[in-house]
Specification:
The complex is a heterotrimer of chains A (548), B (324) and C (366). With 548 residues, chain A is of the alpha/beta class. Chain A contains 20 helices and 24 strands. The longest helix of chain A is centred in the middle third of the chain and has 16 residues. Chain B is globular, with a radius of gyration of 21 Å. Chain C is an all-alpha fold. Chain C is globular, with a radius of gyration of 23 Å. Chain C has a domain of 255 residues: ABC transporter involved in vitamin B12 uptake, BtuC (Orthogonal Bundle), CATH 1.10.3470. The chains are: A alpha/beta (548), B mainly alpha (324), C mainly alpha (366). Chains A and C meet through α12, α13 and β20 of A and α1, α8 and α9 of C.
């Protein structure tokens, strides 16, 4: 299968020369998201652009698609310099994007979605048959099996993604960008997608895979480029790459022995009953299935008082659902319980948010603008949301304005929030300051268990450090903390134990000091499953399996 | 509403009575149906049109006044059509104000809708008093209704004649004839045209529609204006068909009944049409029962009670199906 | 920077309101000019007609004239304030309740029943009537809330339907149970004196209920700003998802907001029956609730602005009546002007500047 392609003398299909992107965010220097990146894509190749979250991949993709413009450098298409001011220009030039989150109309059929916005029509009258035919043609030609007449709402996420690919192809794309395609796919769906991508490349299209998974590079890409902190730190031919080498490039540290990945040292959860009997939070066999690929598939863990359990993992592997169940939402199966003061466990599975609060479980939500605060109300109003119903903030239904004001001021001072006063609308605060109030509010109710979801996302460095210190202080005070974060460094910094979530399960359990960033990163990307013991083998095996 | 001639009743028996009642239901439901179709269009595009009531009112008013004050050169037969055109224009104007205030000036859609309803109520009575001299209605002036159509040569088939030509063979109002065609045209528009697909996409998933290059704002404009036009047709029928005059506040909540029909009908053409017919039937039942021994107030309570019951039931079942 | 913008907003908002009132009044003048032969005079009477006059009498002393008209302004202010608050409270929980009419009718009815059949001491009569009226409104408003919470039924449509039911029920009871055989038209008997208010101003119906308006506004402001229920209502209205996530009792807040609004509308019914009319006719015209809605929209649903907005509306209404009596312009123009004010105030931005710029840019390109 490894055909040696002749060296082409034609210009690159897509070339980026010293492309940089600088965002000014109000501070002195701004943020340099992309710094002097060189990238070359040939016709008929599958190229993987790989890096961690925040490495600059999505910024690059936006620049190629016309959503952003480069601050410096040039983008060349077939040797000619181009500048895309809007996605429409990029689409007209033959660039297609398959987004990470599908953008389809659920109540329309597949064929209708494929032609959405560019429907074949005569004087406004839709030509359905033509749309169906075009969809079927594209679907058959590239092995993207999908029924043109099926309603999108009834499709799995993998099938919906296929519809997105066909949609881009219908618009005449011959450079296809896929944003984190594997994030939502099951193993089989990923294989079939990769076969389709291979068919596209063989037909002469260029495919750019934007991903954080090493397996994508090894399984399907021809060449790869590694981004770290906005710079290119490595590139080459996939056939010559190894998982360990790629991991070191991505993370920036040498990965000593890959075999370590195959046998992680799990933390003993079942045995040692004496040690675990004092668990403050006990989660058993949680199962929750939604219509999407994100699910909970038998999650169990417990957290002792005075301990921080970090849940690491790429978003979309079930963390959001886990947070929901921990805050009181009902799962399909399983239980959540909080150990009481007298050792008796209170099971609050599915009893609702207020029951969870009464058991002493506080949740810092991931989406603070939506679920964490009321942006139009004042800081004081937001700050008392968990404790307003009890003295001293209210007496028999009457709020005590003095106490409320004092409490708000206390929180502002203790958390060093930069605000004009408690009456300022919380929506006007910066992300970091708003998050400080959100955390302060959760801590006000003196929770026995705190679930912190993405606590420092979108927060500046100073505020993030402060928030982490407060989490550590809470741990010292004896609470059990579950830290759900996509920021690996944060998880490593704060957690006593780390559980990695992958596809709704705990894929690995580590104690502090047992795991380093690359181990965890590999676990998070599913690289430590036996199928990826070496480069390229799995791809051939998969092709052999898929061949009719 | 005239009673059928005894001859017709004798000929047709119970089938005839049923048909007569059905025709009455159709007549009562038509204004609500048109407005509900308008409400459905705007709801599908993602904007709820609360001003249906006001739009119907101004259309009813402008229709009558337009017919009275038509240009002198117009032949007599065209007077009501001129009035209808004026009514449509007034409806489009009000809907346009709603669209601009919401889409360009960022005002809250429901608040603007309610304010426009209030404006329409006050403006119509004011202009009625100024132009006609009577604050209650135009009863003193002969206002021409839109014509009714009848199909001749059906004397041999009494039931069919009754169905097609109504009681006393006067035929059905042109807007009643038009209603099924309008429903059909809307169905074709929504399911088989590109603009209809764009409209539905813009309402269901504006982000996806925008990413696909669909002009979402323009679609919302089109939907709001079209919903105004349809509600205008309902209003025109009220003052130039159902009755042949304009009365102050003659819509009497039909615009909100239309909204209820949109909610009950679950955003589908069939459901909305059925709900509108149901509300029409309730109104007819109320008037029929009003001649019985029950106190009339009790009877007038039935249509709104039925509306609430239907709304509550469909909402409750939807909740149960979705799960808490 | 953002904080500065927010502190500027109230001042900018009141400037906007004044500008909107000015523009709407001028638009009214323009409309009058289209239909009337003496628009300017009519317009001035509209603006000043409610004023009582102080004239030097033949006996050498100063006398107030046209007090009756001014009295109507005060009476209407009371009604409209209560009805405006009845809409404002649910609105703070993001509920659009249109049911004030029905709650008013039922409140008036409940008060009448107590007034006509209360055998006990006189001093308790008024209090009990008021309590009965508020209770009737509370329950009827709560019904809308319960239907919204349990069945997700749209509160606009439900409250309107409940209006119709309430009005018919009112008529039913008056015609068949409370009808006074001696009256010339279908109505209840006159309420006994112990259950009515004595007028404060001669020849008007301005009574002690005048203080009810600002008191109710104060109570509403206190409720929303100082009680836990008011806090729950405000958070539910401002950010419903956050309210759910924080464990606030959202359902209870929604139902109670509508119920409390209903109670105030019931109190307005009590005012109509016991202070203004002193008996209940069967043909009491519905529509006051809609005017209360207008007042609430004018006041931007702020309790402290409801009384001034109600006064403004009542003023224009009385002026309109005076204008109708002495000129050829009918009084509904006042309604039109009020609706225009709301439309002008509710817009968040006026893209005129942006349109100008775009036009200029297009012309420059061409």
């Amino acid at each position: 299968m490894n055909v040696i392609k002749p060296v082409s003398t034609l210009p690159w299909r897509l070339e980026l020369r010293s492309v940089s992107k600088h965002y000014s965010n109000g501070t002195a220097n701004g943020v340099l998201a992309v710094d002097g990146v060189d990238l070359q894509l040939a016709r008929g190749e599958i190229h993987a652009l790989i890096g961690e979250n925040g490495a600059g991949k999505s910024t690059l993709m936006k620049m190629v698609y016309g959503l952003e413009q480069p601050s410096a450098g040039t983008i060349l298409l077939d040797g000619k310099a181009v500048r895309f001011n809007a996605p429409a220009t990029a689409i007209a030039a033959g660039i297609g994007l398959v987004p990470q989150h599908v953008q389809l109309i659920a109540s329309f059929s597949v064929a209708r979605n494929v032609v959405l916005g560019a429907e074949p029509a005569r004087l406004g009258w839709l030509r359905q048959a033509e749309a169906v035919r075009a969809t079927r043609d594209l679907s058959r030609r590239y092995g993207l099996e999908v029924d043109p007449l099926a309603l999108v709402a009834s499709l799995s996420l993998g099938e919906q993604q296929r519809v997105e690919v066909i949609k881009a192809l219908y618009r005449g794309a011959d450079l296809l960008m896929l944003d984190e395609p594997g994030a939502v796919l099951s193993q089989d769906e990923a294989v079939s997608l990769f076969c389709a991508l291979r068919a596209l490349a063989d037909a002469g299209l260029t495919v750019l895979l934007i991903t954080h998974k090493i397996s994508d590079v090894l399984d399907v890409a021809d060449r790869y480029t590694v981004l770290r902190a906005g710079r290119v730190v490595g590139s080459g031919v996939s056939a010559e790459a190894s998982a360990a080498g790629l991991a070191s490039l991505i993370v920036g540290q040498p990965v000593a022995n890959l075999n370590m990945l195959n046998t992680p040292a799990p933390v003993d959860t079942a045995g040692g009953t004496q040690a675990r009997a004092a668990a403050r939070l006990r989660v058993q066999q949680l199962v929750l299935r939604t219509g999407t690929a994100e699910c909970l598939d038998g999650v169990s863990f417990d957290v002792a008082p005075g301990e921080i359990l970090g849940i690491a993992g790429v978003e979309g592997n079930g963390q959001h659902l886990l947070a929901k169940v921990l805050s009181g939402h009902a799962p399909d199966a399983g239980s959540v319980g909080v150990g009481g003061v007298d050792g008796i466990e209170v099971d609050y599975t599915g009893a609702g948010v207020r029951a969870a609060l009464r058991c002493g479980v506080a949740v810092v939500p991931a989406d603070r603008l939506h679920d964490g605060a009321a942006p139009d109300l004042s800081i004081a109003d937001n700050a008392i949301a968990s404790t307003y119903a009890r003295a001293p903030l209210s007496l028999r239904g009457w709020l005590q304005p003095g106490a409320v004001d004092a409490a708000a001021r206390r929180m502002i001072a203790a958390f060093r929030v930069k605000a004009d006063g408690p009456q300022q609308a919380i929506g006007t605060l910066s992300g970091g300051n708003m998050q400080k109030i959100v955390l302060a509010r959760s801590l006000e109710s003196r929770p026995r268990v705190l679930v912190a979801c993405q606590p420092t996302r979108g927060v500046d460095i100073g505020a993030a450090t402060f928030l982490r210190d407060r989490l550590l202080a809470l741990r010292e005070a004896g609470a059990a903390i579950v830290l759900i974060s996509a920021d690996l460094d944060e998880v490593l910094l704060l957690s006593d134990r780390i559980a990695v979530m992958y596809r709704g399960r705990i894929a690995g359990h580590f104690r502090r000091g047992q795991a380093e960033a690359h181990t965890l990163a590999a676990c998070m990307t599913g690289a430590h499953s036996p199928a990826h013991a070496g480069p390229r083998h799995s791809h051939d095996a998969a092709l052999a399996k898929a061949a009719p | 509403m005239t009673m059928p001639t005894s001859m017709t009743l004798e000929l047709a028996g119970w089938a005839g009575t049923a048909l007569v009642v059905a025709l009455a239901v159709l007549r009562a439901a038509t204004p609500v149906m048109y407005a509900a179709l308008g409400g459905l269009l705007s709801e599908l595009s993602g904007s709820i049109n609360v001003a249906l009531e006001g739009i119907m009112l101004v259309a009813a008013f402008a229709g009558v006044i337009g017919a009275i004050h038509a240009p002198a050169q117009l032949p007599v037969e065209l007077l009501p059509w001129w009035g209808a055109a004026m009514g449509l224009a007034a409806a489009l104007l009000l809907a346009g104000v709603l669209a601009v205030l919401h889409l360009e000036c960022g005002a809250d859609l429901i608040v603007v809708g309610i304010a426009l309803n209030l404006l329409a109520g006050g403006l119509t009575i004011f202009l009625l008093a100024e132009l006609v001299g009577d604050k209650g209605s135009t009863a003193g002036i002969a206002t021409p209704p839109l014509p009714s159509l009848r199909i001749g040569g059906l004397a041999g088939l009494p039931l069919l004649d009754l169905l097609v030509n109504g009681e006393e063979g006067r035929g059905h109002h042109v807007l009643i004839w038009a209603a099924p065609f309008v429903v059909g045209a809307l169905w074709l528009f929504l399911c088989h045209t590109r603009a209809g697909a764009w409209l539905r996409a813009a309402g269901e998933n504006p982000a996806a529609a925008h990413a696909a290059g669909i002009p979402v704002k323009r679609m919302r404009y089109v939907a709001l204006l079209a919903s105004g036009a349809l509600a205008g047709l309902g209003g025109i029928y009220l003052s130039m068909g159902y009755l042949t005059l304009f009365q102050a506040d003659m819509t009497a909540g039909r615009g909100f009944l239309a909204l209820a029909a949109v909610f009950v009908g679950r955003r589908s053409l069939g459901g909305v049409g059925a709900a509108a017919l149901l509300f029409g039937a309730a109104a007819v039942a109320a008037t029929r029962l009003g001649t019985s021994t029950l106190p009339p107030q009790l009877v007038y309570m039935l249509p709104p009670a039925l509306t609430i019951a239907v709304l509550a039931l469909t909402g409750w079942r939807r909740r149960g199906r979705r799960g808490r | 920077m953002k904080a500065a913008m927010y502190s500027l907003l109230p001042r900018a908002r009141s400037m906007r309101l004044i500008a909107a009132i000015g523009v709407a009044l001028l638009a009214g003048l323009a409309l009058m000019a289209c239909v009337s032969s003496e628009p300017l005079r009519a317009w001035l009477i509209l603006l000043t007609g409610a004023l009582p006059e102080l004239r030097h009498g033949t006996d050498g002393a100063w006398h107030w004239h046209r007090l009756v008209r001014f009295g109507t302004v005060l009476e209407d202010t009371v009604n409209l304030s209560l009805l405006g608050l009845a809409v404002a409270i649910p609105f703070r929980a993001r509920q659009f309740s249109l049911g004030a009419d029905g709650q008013l009718f039922l409140g008036a009815l409940a008060g009448a029943v107590v007034a006509l059949y209360w055998p006990g001491p006189g001093w308790l009569a008024l209090l009990l009537c008021a309590a009965a009226a508020m209770l009737a409104g509370f329950l009827w408003g709560g019904a809308t809330g319960v239907l919204k919470q349990c069945c997700g039924a749209n509160e606009m449509v439900v409250s309107l339907m409940l209006n119709l039911i309430a009005i018919e029920f009112y008529r039913l009871v008056i015609l068949y149970c409370l009808r006074d055989p001696n009256a010339g038209f279908p109505a209840t008997a006159f309420f006994p004196d112990k259950a009515t208010f004595a007028p404060l101003l001669a020849q008007t119906n301005v009574t002690w209920m005048l203080v009810a308006a600002p008191l109710a506004a104060l109570a509403t402001a206190l409720l929303l700003g100082r009680t836990t229920l008011g806090y729950e209502i405000r958070v539910t209205g401002s950010a419903p998802d956050f309210a759910h996530a924080a464990g606030l009792p959202v359902g209870r807040a929604v139902v109670l907001s509508m119920a409390l609004g209903g109670a105030l509308a019931g109190l307005a019914g009590f005012h109509v029956g016991h202070a203004l009319l002193k008996r209940l006719p069967v043909d009491l015209t519905p529509g006051l609730g809609l005017e209360g809605l207008l007042v609430a929209l004018l006041a931007r649903h702020q309790p402290r602005s409801v009384v001034p907005a109600a006064f403004f509306y009542a003023w224009l209404r009385a002026g309109g009546q005076a204008m109708e009596r002495s000129t050829d312009v009918s009084r509904e123009i006042a309604l039109v002007i009020q609706a225009l004010v709301i439309l002008l105030v509710v817009a968040q931005r006026w893209p005129l500047a942006a349109w100008m710029r775009r036009l200029a840019a297009r012309r420059a390109h061409a």
